[in-house]
Write a structure and sequence with these properties.
By secondary structure, this protein is α/β, with parallel strands linked by helices. The chain has one domain: TIM Barrel. It contains 17 helices and 13 strands. The radius of gyration is 20 Å and the shape is globular.
């Protein structure tokens, strides 16, 4: 049930609160501390995915190919052991649908066994698996059939969620159907994205022609106004399927991309309108939890985001450096729902690991402020464990606590890995 009260939290008000001495509370027992990764961005070789096809069509949105990515598919056991060695007690991962069902109705038992082994390895090392069934990418055949731009896309997704749950649901700690299904709606508020979106119809036509698939619809390039209600229904039906297949044991929800939206010139109309498009529809859908994913704040005008002021520190992703945004977003979501909140992604793309440490420190302080104030926050999962392939930005942005040599795939932990690991072990921010 959604709490319809509206709490207007401006950046200035939050800054004032942060300036005063704040109480800290130890995280509750069972609080999850960990890192995350998405299958397509780290595994490598997901050749049956819609994204693989989109990378290789001309013209393409992806100037750098994902290729072998971080070769996690062949190194996952060591990577999980490494994550546990830092002191974490959870790991968030996604399952690549195109590995499970490379052609419609053709189920790969080997892929099911692989992902089950991944979850077993997490459990062996004391990491509670937080599993995302769909992290942006879908099988090529699914996109060719119209994806989530048609009601016909719902049943295949629900069947996939049911299949995966029956094979490995006993190992899951928390499950989310979709990763950031609101991302297209969120990005549509950015002026740069609106300009870029003008070229999407030509790109969709090019890939449809190249693949002989006139109905091609990949979720990441589809019209959110058409796609979002269909995905909400797909989530609702998948929620029921996962709960049934797991005997109700697994908490199931969604993760949402959310910025700390601050009113430009004090005008809240744009913030409220944006929230009604990006957040409210998803909180109306069924769920046992909400995954908050935050990286920055936005200055919001009546109908679009506004430019950052001169002198704003900008990350490799073009985001304003705003670690306190996480606390503001948690508090805003807590006014809109009574569901438990997990921070399922938070981090920074930067080559300067000292800035990452500072970002983690300030962001986690905000999480603990929320805990101290009685908000039902149950975990902080950092994006990401490894530097990875970051979609249209290729391997440029560095989000990882661990660097990856692009030639040898050698892993090198950064100081931030030990820093966050110490927080996880002690429940305190140094």
């Amino acid at each position: 049930m959604i709490d319809r009260r509206t709490l207007i939290t401006t950046g200035a008000a939050l800054a004032g609160a942060m300036a005063a001495p704040r109480a800290f509370a130890a995280p509750p027992k069972g609080f999850l501390w960990g890192t995350a990764g998405a299958a397509y961005q780290i595994e490598g070789g997901n050749v049956a995915s819609d994204l693989w096809a989109m990378e290789h069509v001309k013209p393409t949105l992806f100037p750098t190919l994902s290729g072998d990515a971080d070769d996690v598919y062949n190194r996952v056991d060591a990577d999980i052991a490494m994550a546990a060695s830092f002191g974490f007690n959870t790991h968030r991962l996604s399952i690549e649908w195109s590995r499970i069902e490379p052609e419609r109705g053709q189920i790969s038992l080997a892929a099911l066994a692989y992902y089950r082994r991944v979850l077993e390895t997490c459990r062996k090392h004391g990491l509670a698996p937080v599993v995302t069934y769909n992290h942006y990418t879908t099988p090529r055949w699914f996109a060719a059939g119209g994806g989530f731009m048609t009601q016909d896309g719902i049943a295949p997704f629900v069947a996939y969620c049911d299949l995966v749950t029956r094979h490995m649901g006993d190992l899951m700690a928390v499950a989310t159907t979709f990763n950031e299904p609101n991302i297209n709606a969120l990005l549509s508020w950015g002026p740069d994205m609106r300009r870029s979106a003008q070229g999407l119809p030509a790109f969709r036509q090019a890939i449809a022609a190249a693949l002989g698939a006139p109905n091609w619809a990949s979720p990441i390039t589809s019209d959110p106004h058409v796609q979002q209600p269909i995905m909400i229904e797909a989530h609702a039906r998948a929620y029921d399927a996962i709960k049934t297949a797991s005997g109700g044991r697994i908490p199931v929800g969604i993760t949402l991309a959310l910025n700390d939206d601050q009113p430009f010139n004090g005008d809240m109309s744009g913030v409220l309108r944006k929230r009604s498009e990006v957040l409210t529809p998803w909180l109306s859908a069924p769920g046992d939890m909400v995954g908050v994913q935050n990286y920055t704040r936005s200055l919001v005008g009546p109908d679009s985001n506004m430019p950052d002021p001169p002198g704003t520190e900008i990350t490799q992703m073009g985001y304003a450096y705003a670690p306190e945004a996480l606390e503001a977003v948690i508090r805003m979501v807590a006014t809109q729902t009574k569901r438990p909140i997990y921070v399922t992604e938070n981090g920074i793309g930067t080559e300067d690991d000292a800035r990452r440490v500072a970002f983690i420190q300030r962001a986690v302080q905000g999480v603990l402020h929320c805990v101290a104030d009685g908000l039902d926050v149950r975990g902080y999962i950092h994006w990401s464990l490894l530097d990875n392939w970051e979609w249209t930005q290729g391997f440029g942005p560095k989000f990882g606590l661990v660097s990856v040599d692009r030639q040898t795939f050698a892993r090198t932990p950064k100081p931030s890995a030990s820093y966050l690991g110490k927080i996880a072990k002690t429940g305190r921010v140094a």
